[in-house]
Amino acid sequence: MQPIYMAGNNTDIDSGAYLYIAVDVGTSSVRTAVVDREGRIIEYSSEDISIWQPSPELYELSSENIWKCLCSAVRKACSKVNKGNIRGIGFDATCSLVALDKHGNPVSITPNKATNRNIILWLDHRAVKEAEIINTTGHDVLKFVGGKISPEMQAPKILWCKKNLEEERWKDISVFFDLPEFLTFKATGSYTRSLCSLVCKFNYMGHSSQQINGNSGWIPSFWSGIGLSEFVEDDFRILGGNSVSMPGKPLAHGLSVQAAQDLDLPTGLPVATSLIDAHAGGLGVIGAAVKKELSCESLTSRLAIISGTSSCHMAIDEQPLFVDGVWGPYYSAMVPDLWLNEGGQSATGKVIDHILETHPAWTELVEKAKQSACTVYEKLYSILEESAQDQEHYALLTNDYHVYPDFHGNRSPIADPTLKGMVTGLTLTNDLKSLAVLYLATIQALSCGTRQIIERLNSCGHNIKAIFICGGLSKNPLFVQCHADVTGLPLVLPRETDSVLVGSAILAAYAAGDFKTMKDAMACMSSAGNVLHPNSSTKRFYEKKYQVFQKMYQDQLDYRRIMC
Fold first, then answer.
1. Count of C-beta atoms within a 10 Å radius of residue 43
2. Residue 287 to residue 470: CA distance in whole angstroms
3. Looking at the predicted structure, is the pLDDT value of residue 2 above 70?
4. CB atoms within 10 A of CB 111
5. Which residues touch 431 (CB under 8 Å, ≥6 apart)?
6. What pLDDT, in 10s, does the model give residues 54-96?
C-alpha cells in the first residue's frame, strides 16, 4: 500500500534532516535532486527526453515521454534517502506549450499528426507570423512584454494551432498548459495555474488584482483582437479558467494517489505551485549573501543570468519598470511582491554548440580532448592560451575576428526574431586554432549581448551592480570570466552549480511550511561561491569589441535595406 504523507507525523524529524525533491525539465533532459534545508544537493539523477525537429523552425516534445522520464529520475534520486524525511516537491520546466483534451490526454500539435507530440518547445519559431499579427494590434498588454510579443510566448503558438490544425484537432484541445503547470497537474490532478507562467507567457495581468482570484487578470479585448474570441466566450476555460496560485503555494491535496504510485512517494506530499525554469534559477541564486564590498546587498541591484541552451537575464524592482525590448514588468513572477524584467538570448549554448560542431576541425578537437582526458572546452582553452603566448591576453586573438550571435533571432533588447548571425574575419584556415578563435569570438559576442541588455535595463531605471549566474554555462570558466570582463561587473557564482534545482527546492520548502516566507527560504537555501572580477587589462579592447558588435547590427539592417 502506498504510504500517506501526514505533516503531523514529521514533527519529530530534526530540521537538519528535512529533505526536498526538486524537478527541472529542461530542453533535452529531466534533472532531479534531493536537496536539504541548507540548499545542498545530496542526491541527483537525470534522464534524457525525446525531442523531434520535423523542420528547421519546429521543435516538439511529448508530455507522456516527459512524465515517464521524470518518474524514473525521481525514483533514482530518492532511492538512497529516507523518504520519511522528504517534506515536499517542487517543479520547474521550460516555458513550452502543452495541449491536452478533456481527459488530460495529449492532443497532437505537429503537422504530421503524431499523437504523442503535444508540446511546442520554447525554442520553436513556427509562430513568427502570428507574433507579427499580434504586434500589429498595438494592444496595451504588449507594454508588459517590452512592446513586442515573441514567437516563444504562448499566444502566438496558440494562434498558430488554430490556423494550422484541422478543426477536429483544434476542438479536441480542452486546455493549454505551460509545461511547468502540466507537471503540477500530473502530480496533483489540479488545474490551478501558476501566476509565473500566466504572467510571463500568457499575457495575464497578475497585477490588476493583488487578490489572485477570479479572472481579473485575463484581458478579453486582447484575445478577441487576435482572433481567439472563443477563449473569451468560454470564460477562459481553455486557458485554465480562474484558479491561479502564487509560486510556492501548496496545491490541492498534495501528491495524488496515481502520481504517488508513479513516483514511489507518499500520497499527499506537499506539491508547490511551479515556476518556469529560468525563474527557478533566479530564485535559487539571486538571494545569496555576499560581502558588502560588492555593493549589491539589495536584491534589486543584482542581475540573475540563467544560462544554458538559451539565456535569461532577470532583474527585479519594487516598482514596475517598462523596458523596450525586454519582457515585463511582471508582478510577483519570481520573487513575491517584486516586479520582474526578463531579458534574454534565444540561443546561447545552442549557438556555441553550432559553431563548434559545424567547424571542419570539430572531429579533431573531440579526439584531442579524448587523448588529453579533458572536455572539449578545456582543450579549447589550452589552445587559446598556447596561441596567445606572444599576446598580452588571449582575448586579443579576436582582434580581426568578430561574431554577431543572433543565429536564432534576438529576444532582447532588439526583440527581432528575424535577425541572423554574422561572422567577419574568415580566412582559408580551418585548423584547431581557427576553431578556438571562433569559439572565443562567439563567447565575446554573447557577452556583448548581455552588456547591451544591462545598458537597456539601467537606462530605464534599474541599477545593476553585480551579476549572479547559474545554469550549465556557469561551469565554463571562459564564458563567465568573459561576461565579467565585457560588462565590467563582478560576477558571483553559486555554491551549488545547479541553482535551478535549488530554486525548485525553495518552492518545495515553502510549500511544506518550513519557512514563513519565500524570502526566508531564499536566504537560508541560496549560497554564493566564487566571485570573479573584471580584468582591467582587457577593458580598452572590449570597449572596441562592443563598438564592433553594435555596428554589425546596424550593418545587417543596411543589408536588408539594400536587398528590399
1. 16
2. 13
3. no
4. 14
5. 361
6. 998 899 999 999 999 999 999 999 999 999 999 999 999 999 9
> Residues 478-485: what's their mean pLDDT?
98
DSSP label at residue 367? H
Strands (E), 231-359: 244-245, 275-276, 302-307, 311-317, 327-331, 339-345
Inter-CA distances, 312 with 89, 225, 290, 308, Å: 24, 29, 22, 9
* pLDDT 10s digits, 129-154: 999 999 999 999 999 999 999 999 99
User: How far apart (Å, rounded) are the C-alpha atoms in residues 171 and 165?
Assistant: 10
With pLDDT > 90 as the criterion, what percentage of the chain qualifies?
88
Whether the CB-CB separation of 504 and 273 falls below 8 Å is answered with no
Bridge partner list, 331? 339
Query: What is the C-alpha to C-alpha distance for residues 350 and 23, in angstroms, rounded to an integer?
Result: 22
> Residue 494, preceding bond cis, omega within 30 degrees?
no
Number of Cβ within 10 Å of residue 126's Cβ equals 21
Q: What is the dihedral sign for C-alpha 523, 526, 530, 531?
A: negative
Summary count for the chain: helices (H), strands (E): 18, 21
Task: Decide if pLDDT at 97 tops 70.
Answer: yes
pLDDT in tens, 492-523: 999 998 999 999 999 999 999 999 999 999 99
Give Cα separations from 311 to 171, 346, 348, 529 (angstroms).
Answer: 35, 7, 6, 20
DSSP element (H, E) containing 134: helix 128-136
At 6 the pLDDT is: 55
Q: What share of the chain is helix, strand, coil (3-state, %, to 5)?
A: 45, 20, 35
Task: Map 69-81 to HEC letters.
Answer: HHHHHHHHHCCCC
Backbone angles phi, psi at 398, to 5 degrees: -100, 25
What is each CA distance from 510 to 247, 250, 519, in whole angstroms? 9, 8, 9
Cell numbers given for 341: 524584467
Query: In angstroms, rounded to a whole number, what is the distance separating the alpha carbons of residues 474 and 179?
Result: 24
d(CA 57, CA 562) in angstroms, rounded, equals 26
Query: Region 316-335: what's the mean pLDDT?
Result: 95
By C-alpha distance, which of 517, 510, 513, 530 is closest to 39?
510
Span between the terminal Cα atoms of the chain, in Å: 69
For the cut 90, the answer to whether the pLDDT of residue 241 exceeds it is: no
Residue with cell 514511489: 264
State the DSSP H helix or E strand holding residue 485, giving kind and residue range, or none if neither: helix 477-487
Give residue 12's pLDDT band: very low, low, confident or very high (50, 70, 90). Answer: very low
Model confidence at 211: pLDDT above 60:
no
Name the one residue in this structure whose C-alpha cell is 508513479: 262
The total number of residues shown for the chain amounts to 564
Which cell goes with 219?
484581458
Give residue 116's pLDDT. Answer: 87
